[in-house]
Amino acid sequence: MDSRNLTTKRITVFAGHYGSGKTNVAVNYALWLKEKESYVSVADLDIVNPYFRTKDSQKMLENNKIRLISSEFAGSNVDTPALPGEIYSVFADKSQHAVLDVGGDDRGALALGRYVPLILEENNYEVLFVINKYRFLTKDAKSTIEVMREIEEASKIKFTAIVNNSNIGEETKEDDVLSSVSYANEVSELSGLDIKMTTVKRSLFGTLNNEIKNLQPIDLYVRQSWLREEQK
Amino acid sequence: MSEKVLMKGNEALAEAAIMAGCKHYLGYPITPQTEIAAYMSKRLPKIDGGVFLQAESEVAAVNMLIGVASTGKRAMTSSSSPGISLKSEGISYLAGCDLPALIVNVQRGGPGLGGIQPSQSDYFQATRGLGHGDFHLMVLAPASVQEMVDLVFKGFDLAEKYRVPAMILSDGTMGQMMEPVSLDAGVINNYDKSWALTGTKGERKPNIVNSLYLKPEELEVKNMERFERYAQIEKNEVMYEEYKMDDAEICIVAFGVAARVSQNAIDIARQQGIKVGMIRPITLWPFPKDALYEAAKKVKAFISVELNMGQMVEDIQLATKCTREVLLCNRVGGMIPTTENVLDKINEAVKLGGVK
Q1: What residue numbers bound the domain in which B229 lies?
Q2: In this complex, is the C-beta atom of A175 within 8 Å of any C-beta atom belonging to chain B?
Q3: How far does B179 lie from chain A, in Å, by closest CA?
Q4: Are residues B248 and B232 both part of a single domain?
Q5: What interface predicted TM-score (ipTM) does this complex get?
Q6: Which range marks the domain in which residue A32 is found?
Q7: Closest Cα partner for B171 from B150, B128, B142, B136?
Q8: In this structure, is residue A133 part of a structural domain?
Q9: Is A228 on the interface with B (CB under 8 A)?
């Protein structure tokens, strides 16, 4: 990501449908924040996803001097939906900028609820709704809005803007991103929320930059080597 | 082909089951298959006649599956390794009652509670001993999210065609990974279901679905007849995929996630001039014996790549009648063999001699 046109708050929450790409967008956002802010933390609030987590990016985040707060059980064989007490430090120490990576759907968003009174009290936050047109259960604006309402109800906080992260994995082509714009606009209209940014893999950024407003290039960090596309 | 969507293996499998006409899902949560239950809990109530039921235990879920299957309706249950062990009694009953049903195992590490990371260590259980008594399951092993969809259709079809329970033997990686997938409907054949319990309406004698036979002579006949069907399955329904086998001198045998890693390793080894290929079993039972027997006439050695302690090795030895050395490349406990692990084993096979 780069800093054009992006305003930031002290707390940035990423939530959305399961598998919409929240974690990867959150990690990219933290790296970008780190370019302008000296103290950046990422808190992993995911209590539903067993395998692909911010914890997988631990080394990369640490190399970039970004603090990761994650359950010590994440990525282990302990199947415990636990959150570390350390997450409260994000609200206590206001000298930092924090990115909260929330688990998918209403089930995942439930864990955010306990911090909402603190977030609202300080009132220096954004809650970003990550959407992906190519996910089967959010393939149109109407179903996407349903998921949004469910998350808001579970977490007890309202979204403030949208991140259009529509992609179909490594097969994503320019047309796939372009054809997601009208979908994102419709979600924006129905929800009354602005589209803060549209995120694309870096290789597509150059050609699409003039076509889509607030386009941000992102890199893929949470993918495992054995998941790479098979060579045909 | 329909437009592609991005799905997790577990979600794709669940959606495929719905598309295949499965309106009854009976399950119980366990990592790493919980997305199947979660997905069904959101989708099935929105479908006319759809029933999602989280049972009080795996044992209850599989017995509910027996109930639905005995009415001739398509039904599915899913779990991960420890949960499948709990279901094993009911699966034996399904086989004894000649009932078609689909059982999904998204494998994790074992034995015991093991761990939540991926594994293939239920190979023996699925292909040999999933419950007491003389019986087999159809066992289908997907190696991509697309196959999670395609094999659901195949599994239901074969289960109904032969009146046997079928299993999708997946693993944590297949269940959790996201890939583009086409949700194309597969074939749904209309097989005879005159055996099903649908109510006599006073017009016919009651059907009986049962696995208890009071006379040993009857039970013997029943078992013999069932094994005639198994012979038909072994003859007609073997599925496998060959990769770069035309001139191969080393043959990797791998299924599921192990086949994906192996394929990457084969491509690298080929660049180094090593003639290595792969036979990927898609049905683990019936096992592609003939394909391996034929391959043994051409290759110098086999390598079994697995996420277990070598459970498939004996099947390869039996299929090839022990005419070739079978090496094992494996990781266990939730670890996955790396491309380097497989390459090392390929180089070991080269050193056995006879390979250019």
Answers
A1: 4-236
A2: no
A3: 6
A4: no
A5: 0.86
A6: 11-221
A7: B142
A8: yes
A9: yes
